[in-house]
Structure to design on (366 residues):
């Protein structure tokens, strides 16, 4: 069980929604995201995050700009990225964008860095997919040096070197909260531990408990690197409505065509209703009434030892009012209920420290 107070975030990929029989324009969707972030703050959620995509149906291609707009419209909620594709970003530019966002928002900026599950940004910005691993590894090294050192000297193969370079505006010492997003690679888990960065598990299908081994590996790796324990978070897809039946039917109408399209691109399973119902019952979709979703999140705190849960509440074609209702119920009903259930468990049973045997990590894992 997690020993930390759990945090709750909303993730958006800027999916274009519907309103009645009309699909919103890109510009309307951008403005809607600002309103939804304000709504998230009003209902007491902790974090609002945006992804980074470059394809039809998404409007999150300029994430720092959108987050800056949200920063000026909010006061408390922390602002981050559901994923920043570090491989096709320049670390220097990324530092400047997020140090500026952090200053503008009075210290509310944060990041989740990933290698990209969708690769449209590689040809768009002139990068080769065969350099996938090298790009991420070198750019992560540089980005963390920029955050953690006042004056940076660096050389690599993916960009021009830096010599005694100091960037402005400066972040506060140590930089901003920076998570590593992981979709299943053990190498990525160990990389996060090596840099002492929190781990965000992107679980979008199948049974979440499959990732328990990744969490154990992460904590063991932190120990072997001599670094303190860091938080683990979960990114999941879902919708919350007043009843399980309403939530399931509303999400299915948007989810089925999306998975059909993705299946053609990536070879996913056909989106049958039987498989969908299984995802709701035991899988990665957090779709249901507030009580159903809350109970499922509590299970994740046991299975995955998470102390942060981020819900991706938007999906292409989902009605605007369903998105708004999810935000409302997530903040006012689900988050308080999860905290109530976890507090009751702590009162009933003393916390037992979790230990992780020091099994050696092989050279192929590092």
């Amino acid at each position: 069980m997690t020993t930390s107070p759990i945090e709750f975030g909303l993730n958006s990929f800027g999916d274009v929604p519907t309103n009645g029989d009309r699909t919103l324009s890109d510009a309307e969707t951008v403005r809607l995201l600002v309103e939804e972030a304000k709504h998230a703050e009003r209902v007491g959620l902790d974090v609002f995050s945006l992804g980074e995509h470059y394809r039809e149906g998404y409007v999150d291609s300029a994430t720092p700009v959108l987050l800056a707009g949200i920063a000026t419209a909010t006061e408390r909620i922390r602002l981050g990225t559901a994923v920043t594709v570090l491989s096709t970003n320049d670390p220097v530019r990324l530092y400047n964008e997020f140090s500026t966002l952090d200053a503008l928002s009075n210290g509310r900026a944060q990041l989740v860095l990933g290698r990209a599950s969708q690769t449209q940004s590689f040809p768009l910005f002139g990068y080769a997919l065969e350099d996938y691993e090298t790009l991420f590894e070198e750019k992560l090294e540089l980005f963390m040096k920029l955050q953690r050192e006042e004056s940076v000297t660096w050389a690599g193969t993916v960009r021009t070197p830096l010599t005694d370079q100091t960037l402005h505006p400066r972040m506060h010492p140590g930089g901003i909260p920076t998570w590593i997003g992981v979709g299943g690679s053990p190498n990525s888990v160990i990389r996060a531990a090596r840099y002492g960065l929190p781990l965000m598990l992107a679980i979008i299908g199948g049974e979440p408990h499959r990732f328990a081994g990744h969490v154990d590996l992460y904590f063991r790796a932190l120990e072997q690197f001599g670094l303190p324990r860091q938080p683990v978070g979960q990114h999941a897809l879902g919708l919350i409505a007043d009843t399980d039946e309403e939530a399931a039917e509303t999400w299915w109408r948007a989810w089925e065509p999306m998975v059909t399209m993705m299946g053609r691109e990536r070879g996913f399973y056909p989106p049958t209703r039987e498989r969908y119902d299984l995802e709701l019952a035991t899988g990665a979709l957090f779709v249901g009434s507030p009580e159903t979703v809350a109970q499922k999140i509590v299970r994740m705190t046991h299975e995955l030892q998470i102390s942060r849960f981020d819900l991706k509440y938007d999906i292409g074609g989902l009605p605007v009012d369903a998105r708004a209702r999810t935000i409302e119920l997530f903040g006012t009903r689900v988050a308080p209920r999860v905290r109530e259930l976890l507090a009751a468990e702590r009162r009933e049973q003393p916390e037992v420290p979790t230990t992780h045997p020091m099994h050696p990590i092989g050279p192929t894992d590092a």
Notes: The CA atoms of residues 244 and 292 lie 7 Å apart. The chain is about 45% helix and 15% strand. The two ends are 27 Å apart (CA to CA).
